[in-house]
Structures are given as structure tokens and as C-alpha cells.
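Sat 14:20. Reprocessing the chain from the morning session after the first attempt stalled halfway. Input below, unchanged.
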Amino acid sequence: MTIVNIGFILESPELGSMYGYRGRLGLIVPSSNTTNESEFWRWIPNGVSVHTARMQLEDVNEAQLVEMAADVETCISMLKTADVDAIAFGCTTGSLVKGKGYDEQIQATIETEAGVPAVATSTAIRRAFDILDARSLAIATPYTESMNEREKEFLEENGYRITEIVGLDIEPNTEIGQQTPSTAYRLAADVNSTAADAVFISCTNFRTFEIIPQLEADLGKPVVTSNSATLWASLNLLDVSAEEVNLGTLFERSLL
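Finished this time. C-alpha cells:
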């Protein structure tokens, strides 16, 4: 007969409590995003859970990103049934495609409909740059030239100076998700210059978490990625210290 140590289970917060006993994060992502959830789950602090809803998207271009927004309210309604404590809109270009203020508009819609605090990736990166006092940015992306130009315009409208922005010219989102962290590392290292206060690696479907600490050490400056900023901002919404996560300089700067 197998004897189960019930006492151990009851005394262990991880084993004796529901998933998300410290906070449940709702995450809205494009349907073709294969990276954001995996990075969050591997690095999120114990006791925080992630619950995802998806918006239809195949290619990262302006037309599809605008159409994708039609799914936001359905995603909100589904996440409400999971009783989440905060919601992150996990898409960079999808939260800036209509220019300055669009990210805040998305956040306001989520907060009004869901009744919980929210953050969009484009807002999260701006908060990250501001707390790091990064006014000039070198940007690496997987995007096409037209999407790079859209992102550059958005950030300049919000007061940042772009020293250079370089992309991989990829439009199918599943192909972006197939890129390796080493690809992101090389692209970021190449775009960096002494004129940049920080390096930003854009796209929530671009795998980056494994390389952030080493890239910061090699470049001697902060490195922010779409997913690192979104996770950092989300933890702040949940009142969970970002210092529990080892993803570089940003996570030493909690807003709590």
C-alpha cells in the first residue's frame, strides 16, 4: 500500500493551493504566437499562473493587425470566466499599429470590460524604457521594413530617439516563432551602438529570454524585449516583485 504524506502537501504552497494562488494573469495573444506563453511559463514566479486567449492572426502586417483587434472583446469575456487578476495584451505591433495612444486605448477597453488592471505590450515597453532612463534606442525586430517604420514612428511620437532599427523581413508569424535566441542575440548585437541607451528586441513571438543576461553583460547596457517588458509590467499589476525573475536590469527596477 502506498502511503501519501498528506502533511507535506498541505504545508507546501505550491502543492496545497490552486494554481495562481499569488495571482492569475490573463494573456491575450495572436493565434499564431508560439513563444509568449512558453517564455512566461518558464520564468514566471511560483504561485503565479497564466491563462491565455487568442486573436486571429497569420501574418504580421498592418491589415491583419487591425483586423485582429476585433477579437479583443471575445478574449476579454473568456478570460473573465477564469477570474483573472490582471490582463496583458501580448502583441507589440498589434498595440501600436494605429499610432500614439492606441496602446492606451486597448488597455482602457480591457480594464473597462474585464474590471481588472491591464497592460499592452507597447505600454509595457515604454514604462520599461522610462524606468531605465533610456531615451535613445537601438531596435532589433523580426519584422518587415514597413512594420519597422510603423514601430519607429510610434516610439518617436512618444519621445524616444531611434539610433537604428533592423529587421529580419519576416511576415508569417509562425516563421517568426521559429527563430532561435541566437538569431535574436546576433541581430541585437549588430544593431547596438554607443549612441543607444538601451537595446530593444521587439515582438512577443521572438524568443529572447535565454539571452538577455548574457547580452546585457556583453553590450554593457540594458536589454529590453517585448516579452520581458510585458512580464515585468504584468507582475507589477499583480503586486508580485519582479526581482524574483532573473531577466536582466529591468527586473531589478520594480514599480512596487
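The mean pLDDT is 94.
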